[in-house]
Fold this protein.
Amino acid sequence: MALPFTYYYQSFPFAYPQTLLRKLAPLGDRVLVRRAAKETQTASGIYLPGDTTKDPNEGTVVAVGPGEKDVTGQMHPTTLVAGDSVLLPEYGGNKVKIDDEELVLFRESDIMGKFE
């Protein structure tokens, strides 16, 4: 006899909610970025197949680390904040999948610029 889902949820409260509420706080000078969506249509209205489109080189900052410490121990905070639009390198970064969403983790020095 199978027990209802609420029984499993009540008996193991630590197993289910953490997967829904997972967050990632970057360390050091790392920046968590959500890449912009791939364009599937050209300016003239032609639809492109999914495999020929490449990742866009821009994205939005989701979270930033506290900063980097130098040799003397002085903290240098990051210049980016959550919500900034940034220009990303074509390659690089560490892909991270959180709640079925793919994000990319970069060092702040790898990010090429910030849109204003």
